[in-house]
Structure formats: C-alpha cells, structure tokens
C-alpha cells in the first residue's frame, strides 16, 4: 500500500493567514527554517493508481497535484475513489464540497461523523446539490472493505476506533465515534497504516492497537498543553481542544516512543508548534525518540 502525506498542518495551515506567532514569522521570513505546510490529509492506494483520501482539507485542490500522473483518455477523470473521514471538523471535511465537480463521490465514516456533516455543518447536503454522494457507514470496531467508485473491491479495509476528544464546536450532539483512529489495512500484505490526526489521549488499549501498525500517523497538533494560552492566542489548553500534547511525561512522544511500528510520524501540526522549526530542540527531541515530523509530500510504502 502506498501512503502520501498530502498536508501535515492543523486547521489554518502553516503559516496561518492571521498569525504572527514566532513559528509563523519564521515560515514567512525564512521558509527553509520552517517549511510551509497545507492542512492535514493523506492519500492511500493499494495499486498506486487508484487513490482514497484520508480526510479532505480546504487545500485539496492543490494537494491532488501530488498524486502520480495518470494517462487519461477521455475529458474527465476523478482521481479520488473515496474519502475516509476521521472526524467532522472543517479542516477535514470542507474539501468534500470542493470536490463537488466529481459527480459521484464516496464518503466513508462513522454514523456520528456522517450525521454531523449532514445536519450540523451541512457539508453533505451542500455537496449533494452538485454530486451524487454515496455514504458508507463504518460501525466502530468492524473491519469494513473499501470499494472503488465502480463497486469493485480495492483490497483495502478500514477499521475505526473511537478516541478521546471533543466533537466539533458546531456539533449539536456528543456521540461516540465523533473522532476516530482509522486503521487502514492492505488485505494482500496484512499491513496496516494507523491514521490518527486528532486524539485527546492515549490509553493502554489504543496504544496496543497502534503498536500493531506498520505506519503510524499521529496527532502532532501541540507541543505543550498550554501552548496557545502562553502565546495569548486562546484560553483553552490542548486537552480541552481534543489534542494530547507531545511533550511531558504524559505526552504522546513518551507514550509512542516505545511502540514497535516501523515508522511513526506526526501530522496535523499546529502553526504554533516549535517542532516545525528545523534544528530546534523540540525537533531534535522528536527525532531522538525515533519519530518523524511530517512534511507535505512525504511518501511511504507498507
Ligand atoms: C481541531 O483539530 O481541533 C479543529 O480542527 C479545530 C478547528 O479548526 O476548529
Ligand atoms: Mn483540526
Ligand atoms: Zn502562528
């Protein structure tokens, strides 16, 4: 299975349009020291030709240019076979509306996420005004085979596990499955990519599941729990925003560094996170723990 990191920044991208925090300043002044990033999304494919998206970001149009070129005989070609959603946040779902020209789209998500985009953000009905949208409900804990748009099997299964966190601010209900870890498995090799761009905490059960993955893509939003408070940007700690911080004894770096996954990568990195700075002590700490700070365009094969 091929996995491409299409975007590795959290909501707002990096640098964020209205932000002049220290990291955003570096990204503008000297991008070689802190490389700009688009909002988090992945593409994955069993054959390297037909691709699914993991979340659809507002940057999806530019991001699709990172997929390998294909020879197209006709006048139209939809390079996305389906979109797997791990939550209903705007940075992960607005791209669905932007793919409305696709005529036939496939959305794969939990009942909670599908309900939220149907009733609360209305991303689903807005898209349905332009395109036929086939929704595939994934029950928590059940490995669900993915099909291509023509109905043929893709050789990939998805299993979703609810993770700690909060539903989007605009969600009118809090339901189990509003935010999930997606386990993407290539059935021919049996190898799994665990895609977890939003996660509010790591318990023993989730850790042991993540440990079985060959490739782990994990929530790298905040370095510290009080990151936005210290910068005077927000009064909410990371924990109140559904993101476990990276640093500290209870942080994700300490928890994930013991896992046996072949590759462990942070994605969904907020613009304030100091590990975005090349050569920073925070970057060095991540790498010393055997993890990778994700960058747009990174490719993995599992
Ligand atoms: C999040 O990751 O917590 C959300 O995307 C926040 C937001 O952009 O509103
Ligand atoms: Mn987000
Ligand atoms: Zn910033």
Proportion in helices:
10-25%
In angstroms, what separates the terminal alpha carbons? 5 Å
Query: What is the tally of beta strands?
Result: 14
The CATH topology? Metallo-beta-lactamase, Chain A
- The low-confidence parts are none
Determine Rg (CA atoms, Å): 18 Å
Instruction: Sketch the topology as an H/E string, one letter per element.
Output: EHEEHEHEHHEEEEEHEHHEHEE
Assembly type of the chains comes to single chain
Strand-residue proportion = 15-25%
CATH architectural type: 4-Layer Sandwich
CATH superfamily: Ribonuclease Z/Hydroxyacylglutathione hydrolase-like
Strand order of the largest sheet: 6-5-4-3-2-1-14
Number of helices: 9
Overall domain count: 1
Provide mean pLDDT, rounded: 98
Shape: globular
Question: Top keywords for this entry?
Answer:
302 residues, alpha/beta, Metallo-beta-lactamase, Chain A, seven-stranded mixed beta sheet, 14 strands, 21% helix, binds D-malate, binds manganese (II) ion, binds zinc ion
How would you characterize this protein structure?
The chain is an alpha/beta fold and 302 residues long. It has a single domain, classed as Metallo-beta-lactamase, Chain A. It is built from 9 helices and 14 strands. It has helices at residues 22-29, 60-63, 90-98, 111-120, 123-128, 204-211, 227-230, 252-256, 281-288; strands at residues 2-7, 41-45, 51-54, 80-84, 104-109, 132-137, 144-147, 153-162, 180-186, 191-196, 215-219, 263-267, 292-293, 299-301. It has a 7-stranded mixed sheet with strand order 6-5-4-3-2-1-14. A 7-stranded mixed sheet has the order 7-8-9-10-11-12-13. α2 (60-63) links the parallel β3 (51-54) and β4. The radius of gyration is 18 Å and the shape is globular. The mean pLDDT is 98. The structure holds D-malate (MLT), manganese (II) ion and zinc ion. Zinc ion (ZN) is lined by residues 15-16, 19, 21, 23-24, 271-272. Manganese (II) ion (MN) is lined by residues 10-11, 89, 91, 268.
